[in-house]
Amino acid sequence: MANSGQKVVLITGCSSGIGLRIAVTLAKDEKKRYHVIATMRDLKKKDKLVEAAGDTYGKTLVLLPLDVCSDESVKQCINNVKDRHIDILINNAGVGLLGPVESISIEEMKRVFETNFFGVVRMIKEVMPDMKKRRSGHIVVMSSVMGLQGVVFNDVYTASKFAMEGFCESMAVQLMKFNIRLSMIEPGPVHTEFETKMMEDVAKMEYPGADADTVRYFKDVYLPSSIDIFEAMGQTPEDIAKCTKKVIESSSPRFRNLTNNLYTPIVALKYADETGGLSVNTFYNLLFNFGPLMHITMSILKCLTCSCLRRRTISPN
Ligand SMILES: NC(=O)C1=CN([C@@H]2O[C@H](COP(=O)(O)OP(=O)(O)OC[C@H]3O[C@@H](n4cnc5c(N)ncnc54)[C@H](OP(=O)(O)O)[C@@H]3O)[C@@H](O)[C@H]2O)C=CC1
Ligand SMILES: CC1=C(/C=C/C(C)=C/C=C/C(C)=C/C=O)C(C)(C)CCC1
């Protein structure tokens, strides 16, 4: 149970990656300011979190089951929280989807929206009324740079994050009237199981319905560039957890919070030209005309951001 003065933080999707790391980082806060309710849809996957939490497990960190795709699971989980009192809700659970749209069934696309979009809506609908009554609270959403700008062959994942951006940008205004803050975290590539799961799915894919040229552009042009980008600018879940902690500890948290300085110029293209021409043409050229040049640029970037220099270039601290 939370001590008086401790903030109750509920996080979704804590079995791995960013969610796990945020849960552990907050539970290990030196001043013990947080009572962390780490949730996951399958408690059989709890070992990694329990091990990382160490002696905070059962003290500043407790576990509850929660599947963001189920109305019943969400309701039951929130009803199990003392007085349904949550100070900070961190919507982290999410799934990726990669590949030519022709090869992806509508069912698979719906699953992505069910998790990444309706999952967040479901959580906010359940938690927000109590926050409104108390005239306090902070809702954090793990969005993505792909919630701000489309990336080729990530069409459906991008769309699900855009949907959430639109929903939250609209909600933020109303929530402000109730003294509830809403913050989006916008990571670029992060080394987690998200990346591994997507690569495994891609390896299994047979691309039914996609023509040979499209499959070639995906496998031989997009995938190698994407791997380069992950290698050159990928952050760690620790980086994202530190940024998220900073956001929840800020006295005036920003609505949008990019976590990766290296990715900022890519997102800025969209805002530099409202017709969209600059970003669409630049991405086209980067991918199809300057692929080898991009590989070299990314290799140089990777070298410049290796651990000895990283501290000087990016600081999630
Ligand atoms: N990695 C990256 O490059 C980036 C990731 N993000 C976002 O960060 C968030 C976390 O992803 P990341 O840590 O990288 O990936 P992981 O795959 O490591 O973690 C995703 C988590 O979401 C959980 N999850 C999936 N579906 C549900 C569900 N229906 N109910 C509850 N939990 C669920 C997974 O649980 P289970 O183990 O049961 O599947 C897992 O705990 C996502 O929203 C993602 O979109 C944003 C930008 C970049
Ligand atoms: C290939 C390619 C790109 C790829 C970007 C990638 C691969 C971003 C990954 C972001 C992730 C994984 C977000 C998760 O939410 C750019 C830079 C747009 C430039 C054009 C070519």
UniProtKB/TrEMBL annotation:
Any Pfam family: adh_short
Keywords for the protein's UniProt record, in alphabetical order: Lipid metabolism, Oxidoreductase
GO biological process: estrogen biosynthetic process; retinol metabolic process
Binding annotation for NADP(+): 13-41, 67, 161
UniProt-listed SUPFAM superfamilies: NAD(P)-binding Rossmann-fold domains (SSF51735)
Family matches, as CDD domains: type1_17beta-HSD-like_SDR_c (cd09806)
GO molecular function: all-trans-retinol dehydrogenase (NAD+) activity; estradiol 17-beta-dehydrogenase [NAD(P)+] activity
Entries under PROSITE patterns matching the protein: ADH_SHORT (PS00061)
Family to which the UniProt record says this protein belongs: Belongs to the short-chain dehydrogenases/reductases (SDR) family.
Protein name per Swiss-Prot or TrEMBL: Retinol dehydrogenase 8-like
Protein species of origin: Xyrichtys novacula (Pearly razorfish)
